[in-house]
Write a structure and sequence with these properties.
Blueprint (H helix, E strand, L loop, with lengths): L1 H51 L2 H7 L2 H21 L7 H25 L2 H8 L4 H8 L12 H4 E8 L2 E7 L6 E10 L2 E12 L4
Antiparallel strand pairs: 1-2, 2-3, 3-4
Helix pairs in contact: 1-2, 3-4
């Protein structure tokens, strides 16, 4: 009888251990899944904040200075690359034009970024009533019916660079030749947009 009791206790213990292991594995798997999905969820949350003009949420999710500085550096780099591909100036006027363009470009970039990299700028230029959206509406077209309205279709790739950095390469909604690389950084238990690089400057530059 004693052996039977010990056997029962052993079976009970093993069952408890199996349940604990299964629970631990399940919990760990759920945490991993939640972590893997969290940067895209944050990006979607930021997109909704832009549409709703939720300033507090945008401020919480965006490092404005980091985004502005990274955009400035990358835009100037793309403009420099574009300048190197120019044909040789054919005259004095063309040389002056190139010189003025190169001199004024940094100031123009600073001005544009000061207008666009802020809660008000994000809402104005990426929100539902952006100048381009209103231009499309003026043509009798609902901008939300355009293929470019589907954000997922404009994403080239989205991947973890490491455990605390997630990158999303995406086309601009109105200029598919303009490609941006957005970097979200995980800190203090949440993701934040800290950097945006201009990979391709687009046809409007």
């Amino acid at each position: 009888m004693q052996d039977t009791g010990m056997g029962q206790d052993l079976r009970t213990l093993m069952t408890a251990i199996r349940r604990a292991v299964v629970t631990t594995i399940t919990t760990f798997s759920l945490l991993v899944c939640a972590y893997a999905l969290s940067p895209m969820a944050t990006a979607a949350l930021l997109g909704n904040a832009v549409k709703d003009n939720n300033v507090d949420l945008m401020n919480a999710l965006v490092d404005w200075q980091g985004v502005k500085e990274s955009l400035r550096v990358s835009i100037l780099a793309r403009l420099s690359e574009k300048a190197q591909d120019r044909p040789v100036a054919s005259g004095v006027m063309e040389s002056v034009k190139y010189s003025l363009t190169d001199t004024l470009s940094p100031y123009m970039v600073d001005y544009v970024l000061s207008q666009r990299v802020s809660p008000a700028g994000f809402n104005l230029y990426m929100g539902p009533h952006s100048p381009m959206a209103e231009k499309v509406r003026a043509q009798g077209i609902d901008p939300d019916t355009l293929p470019s309205a589907n954000t997922l279709k404009r994403i080239h790739h989205a991947t973890f660079r490491d455990l605390t950095h997630f990158e999303i390469e995406i086309e601009d909604r109105w200029d598919p030749e303009k490609v941006l690389l957005a970097t979200l950084e995980f800190s203090n238990f949440f993701w934040r947009l800290t950097k945006v690089d201009m990979l391709s400057i687009g046809k409007g530059a």
